[in-house]
Amino acid sequence: MNHFLKNLSTQRWIGVVLIVLFGMIAYHNCLPNEMFWDDDDFINNNRYIKDFHYWPLWFSQNLVAGSYLLSNYWRPLLLAIFAVEWHWWQNWVYGWHAVSVSVHILAAVTLFLLLNRLFANNLANSVLALLTALIFVAHPVHNEAVVYVNSMGDSLAAFILLSSLLLYTRFRQSQKPAWSSRSYWLALLLFPLGLLSKETGFVLVGLLPLTDFLLLSKAKSFGGRVKQTAAAVWPFIVLGLIYVILRGTALNFNNSFNFYNANNAFTAHPSIRLMTFFKALVQYTGFLFFPYQLRVERDFAWAQSPMEWDVIVGGVLFGVMLASAFKYWKTKPLISFGVGWFFIAIVPASNILVPINAVLYEHFLYMPMIGIALIVAHLGLDWAQKHHAIPTLLKIFAVIMILFCAINIHRNLDWRTSIGFYEQLVTYRPDDYRVINNLGMEYANKGIHDKALAEYLKAIALDPKNPVAYHNIAGTYRDTGHIQLALENFQKAIQLNPNFIFTYRSLADLYWRLGQWEKCKENLLQILRMDPTDERIRQALRTVEEKIK
């Protein structure tokens, strides 16, 4: 055991191999999984990734514009990678999942290398870096971010940001001026790539000063550290501010700073958002220390009163963590660093500054959990060293890793098929419009029309003003030969949303089959009005006009 640990401190490849091995064990059985839900909007139906002629639109349009949808997301680098993948293997799911798992493992390896460099390359800190990285690579809370292909933005942004931090740390430790350090300029160059991967890349403007101030600055006084840190990180902060300005102007697709795009109690009152974050903090603690019953969609109500038990518990937890960070910044900087990392990394998903259209998701912990994992590994090692129990600690850790891998392997099966996924999820969310409608779509795709109709009718009953289920049930009526019912429901979808391009496409196709060329032409013209770039529709229109003549 001692020989292995001594080798670890001098030969980092051993740690890298272990991280790769546990990452592969945890996710090896996700490779055959189907791609569905947001994978449809991000990848399967996104025409922007299927033709490289669209590449300028990756930078000027929102992430799902290629699927004729509107979102607040702007992730050109993610779209570029998806485009390359599409041209490599199109619908071959093994390839898509292999890339997602690989990027996650790369992020874990980069974390290991970063922590090794931050905490000096000695025996205890090499073990600390390895334990933290292993927790990160195998923790079940990351399953959603790894197995759900469109969520690769989390691991991609993390890999880039951790690489930037690693390069910045090399620059600091080299004692070279910033202007003459290649590592510094590479770190600065990576920051925009992180922003192009996912909006959470912005957290580097907080993580970089935190790392410099607590772990890299050589100044002894508080003011000296602030001055030394500010002198090096200000270009990163300027880039971050430019990004914020762009997201508020040229890249503001659907109200970047209020995802609800409306005023309600949650968006209007920061106090409600703060209390709701306290509630979420309790749930996040459970995810990290007791990763049980993990799933995608959760019914999480906004906080209404400071006297709710989970608001109180979350507020106390928040206060204790913050107090510890300020108390130990000199004597135990690693504790302050871990706490600071957690809070900085979770800011984009906290709803405190920017209301987003979700309160609680497991993948929100992708970057923040690094801070908690580091603290847990540090406290465990500290206990083991005091009690001369390093072998005992490693045995306990091995058991935890086996449990983590087992949970992931089981959880991977939840994502195996779209129908199985939705049938399980609907037991938790029986009144969720999106879940029910999507289950109906999957039944329809598999030709199980009776079950599809039943789910669509449930969705319509839940939200009769939403055009999506009317459009979908019309498609099932069409496929089962009930043409009049199909036409009535297609018209209902258009009545509810005159710009619902999917219905015009379906109507054009249906009228083409029926030989009703005038009506087919009307719908083709509507499609071109909304998407003038669609050459296939122009060709179809020319053919229809010839038939009319």
Radius of gyration: 26 Å
Strand portion, in percent?
Answer: under 5%
Oligomerization: single chain
What gap, in angstroms, lies between the N and C termini?
85 Å
| Portion in helices | over 70%
Q: What is the ordering of alpha helices and beta strands?
A: HHHHHHHHHHHHHHHHHHHHHHHHHH
Tally of alpha and pi helices:
26
**Unreliable residue runs:** none
Shape: elongated
Structural class: mainly alpha
Count every beta strand, where a strand is a DSSP E run of 2 or more residues: 0
How can the largest sheet be summarized?
none
Mean pLDDT: 93
Describe the 3D structure.
- With 549 residues, the protein is an all-alpha fold.
- It contains 26 helices and no strands.
- 42% of the residues are buried.
- The mean pLDDT is 93.
Descriptive keywords:
549 residues, mainly alpha, 26 helices, 0% strand
Short description:
With 549 residues, the protein is mostly helical. 71% of the residues lie in helices and 0% in strands. The chain is built from 26 helices and no strands.
